[in-house]
# Entry
Amino acid sequence: MTRVTGIGLLTGWGAGTAALPDDARATGAGRRVVALPRPAYDGERFRRATRECLLGVAAVDAMLADAGLDRGAIGGPDTALIYASAAAYGASNRAFIVGGPSVYFPYTAPSAVPAEVAIEYGLRGGYVILVGGATACIEALWQAATLLGSGRCRRAIVLAVETFAECETLWSRGRWTVRGPLVEAAACALLEGDGEVCYAVGVIPAPLEMVARQRAGETLACGPLIALALAREAGEALPRVTGQWRGRRMGVTLELATAAARTRS
Amino acid sequence: MRPVAVVAAGVATPIGLDLETFWSGLITGVDGTSRIERFEVGDLRVGRGGEIKKLASAGQAPHRACRASSMLLRAADDLLAHAGLGADAGRVAVVLGTALGGVEELDRALTDTPGPRTAAAGLYDSPAFALARRLGAAGPVLTVSTACASGATALGIGADLLNSDAADLVVAGGYDVLCRFVMRGFDALRSLTRDRVRPFDRRRNGLLLGEAAGLVLLARASEARAPLGRLLGHASSSDGSHIAAPDPDGRGLEHAVRAAMAAAGVGAADVDLVSAHGTGTVLNDRIETSVIKRVLGAHAHAVPVNSIKGAIGHTMGAAATLEAIMCLLAARDGVVPSTLGYEEPDPACDLDYVPRAARQVRTRMSLSTSLGFGGCNAALVLEGGA
# Structure
């Protein structure tokens, strides 16, 4: 089975599942966007990096801390990186369009976030970037398992970053914001194992999907990873996570490593 | 990896809005780059690119479709002219690669006062859903954005969907439009050439962008005929090196190429043709050459290596798909298109780049390489049809 051996989670509510409110809509008090501040990574290395790139790095750092691994543990060609996002490129695209060349052009690409993560940790393995909401994250989890199962990597990182603040007016026009608030998030999971996974198309929503949305708000591609974090908190061993995006529904079932197993690893 | 059948292909390119016109243009050396007419370029250093001039009048896209969707629908019509989608709608998937997605619509949404429809069209994955609607595909719809390697990654994920039984048919490919957003970006980076595109040439000094859509219909090889050929292996990798420039030693690309060949179960001596990314930039072409030599060894000098970017420009998300299609058509017809613009050898690029004219040569097994911003690398191994 494919095991999740570490999860990192940052949301507009704070770090980890403990920061999530019971009811995001009520706690949001009518706000359309609950924003995440720019993480404090200083120095020349991150001089040009956008906020969403730094959120990606911060999520991986949080995942490593959760898994009890140091940074050097994931470098090299044996670790795959699969990134999913529906919105994170919007801020840099907007800045480039509206503000002229104030943004270094390569940062307008969705590939900028995983690129900064790959550079930071020296990742040189399988590399996939999927654009879309919750289903893109489900597909990222499936793709991670596929890479594991085919021996194309020994471990896989699934990363999702969603930012909305810079394009808030644009998002407010979309019907997908109806169930807001839009909550910025960066989430990351480390997957290991034999690649066996149950991936399904057209599934009904799993209870975890509802719980994640109720507690975190609308986090698009981060939703399934938040659901995994909540499942682990609830002690589920084989959670089914589902997601919906633009009328399509997907689901995937994974094994969650216990705290004891994570400590041993 | 279990091989996947390439049942049919369809394209919309600056040198042809259907497969055979595109192919004929590549063989006869048609230059599809020209002065860009669709939007203002007077303030840019370079105003040339591979622009499709008559897409609107030739296509059959819905009235309100964005240009990216119109190109895709045009390519889909071409594909469907060669093969039908004889599968349950829920088992038909769409996997598209793009570097820019619906960014031109995002530009419009941010600078005009649009309604919700325009805002939605600004999402990167909107064109993929437009294509899925046209095809009646109700299975997974994935948008891949590994920059200019997207068109290869998309084909690989399409193969993965088939091999994991998540779909019975996959329409996979890539697209991107020429728009002010991307022209401004590359202009600011000083990546565009004022000369013609000269892949691997001693005088090469930059690329020209192009726009295109390329699609292939994939099916499990055990269940379908493969008139065009088969995808035998694929792999991707990250450089983990630089946000915009390729790894100077090509380590990431080498990893992807070796992994794709291992997945395909082929060795260096099996490769008959290399379709290179070949952008015409100083760094890319030198790095690609060194990787090809390291992976193929002495055999590298015996294999034709071409780039079609001199003919159509760098079509970004579409590039790798079009190059994969080129490999399969080369095997079908026993002819390899030349590298348009390549005239003067560079000591740092010392392979056989198919100069001057298309070459009559039997090829069966092809290797296609791709690189993109953010250190994205991808490689495909393709086998021509019988």
User: Anything to note?
Assistant: Chain B touches chain A through 62 residues (CB under 8 Å). The longest strand of chain B covers residues 229-238.
